[in-house]
Design brief:
Layout: E1 8-17, E2 37-45, E3 52-58, H1 63-71, H2 74-77, H3 82-87, H4 89-97, H5 110-131, H6 135-141, H7 144-149, H8 162-173, H9 176-186, E4 188-196, H10 202-214, E5 219-223, H11 228-242, E6 247-251, H12 258-267, E7 273-277, H13 285-295, E8 299-302, H14 309-317, E9 323-324, H15 333-347, H16 360-374, E10 384-386, E11 400-401, E12 404-405, H17 419-425, H18 431-443
Helix pairs in contact: 1-5, 4-5, 6-16, 8-15, 9-16, 10-11, 12-13, 14-15
The chain binds magnesium ion.
Catalytic activity: L-fuconate = 2-dehydro-3-deoxy-L-fuconate + H2O
Organism: Kitasatospora cathayae
Protein name: L-fuconate dehydratase
Length: 444
């Protein structure tokens, strides 16, 4: 190896928290007061060139635990040659999930796995910058054989073999150039959750639901599950605001037992909800299957808390979901999400990703756009969640036009935040929190 080979020299981490709980933005039946947060990581290189940015999303307390988990991965990353890393992010992904001691904390789930996702996504950001392409395009341009080499088929080969994945990707290449042109011209369909937070009153709900339709969205989503009488009233108000032709999803954020999920969903059926999201525990595969059988034609959706490709495999095998909601920052990064996209394609289940939070829209749009251009080739019954919070902190924020995500054109994974945002909202010493904590102390 020559002395000039660029290497990763530092893995810098940041505990970044935004005070979103003040406005009840993001409030739902299980999470009444989230402070949207990011455990944020920057990979720095010895040539001082591109950096890789990544993060995982939390909702406040515990973000320090998440940062500590990323810190624990540092020895695997520092010193790696940048070119090798970018040519094969899967090699790092394998090393991280295979760390024989850290693996005990999962395996492949929870805080440690989300930390792996943050680091792996930072590598993909770096790789896309090196290639001078937005990530969706890097993936769409990649050889199917190489993409298959990036996937860990352990524990999923009973549902999807490497040969089947290769076949799906080869088929996905046909017509990819035309679809890329369509994507750049038209964007990718979005739906919005902004009207439906549980902490908003009916006037705000109605106003935002009407605004969503006039902004071009064809689907909205409401939080439900705290109080049935309230839900009936809110669903009635929202349906009246948007009319019969707009899809209206509902989201219980894991609030219910299986029987309760069925009863509650049926009690809201007169408002024609399109899907019921997270009706119960994300780990309850058979529970979701039972709910799905009993609430049809209301569809069942889940995924934002599904911990890995193996649970997604079972949800698909059990016929437990109509809509798969992968999340860019919950599982082991792009590598594992490629496996999940391919599983969904194999089973013919549409992917409607979870987004919102901090930066989840920025990240996940790349995965759906790749899926459209070079995997399933369709946006039918597919929408990416959109929530209009905190985008101003990003260098390359999402752009929504007429209810569609515009395709990003800047190189990378759209993950980088402004340094001023990091400095202001770093917890507890950033200028915003330092002032807050000082004030609290003064009034105590
Ligand atoms: Mg949700």
């Amino acid at each position: 190896m020559s002395a000039t080979t660029a290497r990763i020299t530092a893995v810098d981490t940041y505990d970044v928290r935004f005070p979103t709980s003040r406005e009840l933005d993001g409030s739902d039946a299980m999470n009444p007061d989230p402070d949207y947060s990011a455990a944020y990581v920057v990979l720095r290189t010895s040539d001082g060139g591109h950096e890789g940015h990544g993060f995982t999303f939390t909702i406040g307390r515990g973000n320090d635990v998440q940062v500590a988990a990323i810190d624990a991965l540092r020895p695997h990353v520092v010193g790696r040659p940048v070119d090798e890393l970018c040519a094969d992010p899967g090699s790092l992904y394998h090393d991280l999930i295979g760390d024989s001691q850290l693996r005990w904390l999962g395996p492949e789930k929870g805080v440690m796995h989300m930390a792996i996702g943050a680091v792996v996504n930072a590598v993909w950001d770096l790789a896309a910058k090196q290639q001078g392409k937005p990530l969706w395009q890097l993936l769409a341009d990649a050889d199917p054989e190489w993409l298959v080499s990036q996937i860990d088929f352990r524990y999923i080969a009973d549902a999807l073999t490497p040969a089947e994945a290769l076949e799906l990707l080869r088929r996905g290449k046909q017509g990819a150039d035309e679809r890329a042109a369509t994507l750049l011209q038209r964007g990718y369909p979005a739906y919005t959750t902004s009207p439906g937070w549980l902490g908003y009153d009916d006037e705000k709900l109605t106003r935002l639901a009407r605004a969503a339709v006039s902004d071009g969205f064809r689907q909205i989503k409401l939080k439900v599950g705290a109080d049935l009488a309230d839900d009936i009233r809110r669903c009635r108000a929202a349906r009246a605001a948007v009319g019969p032709d707009i899809r209206m999803a509902i989201d219980a954020n894991q609030r219910w037992n299986v029987a309760e999920a069925v009863e509650w969903t049926k009690a809201l059926a007169e408002f024609a909800p399109y899907w019921i999201e997270e009706p119960t525990s994300p780990d309850d595969v058979l529970g979701h299957a039972t709910i799905r059988r009993q609430v049809s034609p209301v569809k069942v959706a889940t995924g934002e808390h599904v911990q890995n490709r193996i649970v997604f495999k079972q949800l698909l095998q059990a016929g437990a979901i109509d809509v798969l909601q992968l999340d860019s920052a919950r599982v082991g990064g792009v590598n594992e999400n490629l496996a999940i996209l391919l599983l969904a394609a194999k089973f013919g289940v549409p992917v409607c990703p979870h987004a919102g939070g901090v930066g989840l829209c920025e990240l996940v749009q790349h995965l759906s756009m790749f899926d459209f251009v070079a995997l399933t080739g369709t946006t039918e019954d597919r929408v990416i969640e959109f929530v209009d919070h905190l985008h101003e902190h990003f260098l390359d924020p999402v752009v929504i036009t007429d209810g569609h995500y515009r395709a990003p054109t800047l190189p990378g994974f759209s993950a980088a935040m402004h340094q001023t945002s990091l400095d202001t909202y770093q917890y507890p010493h950033g200028s915003f929190w330092a002032e807050e904590l000082a004030q609290k102390e003064a009034t105590a």
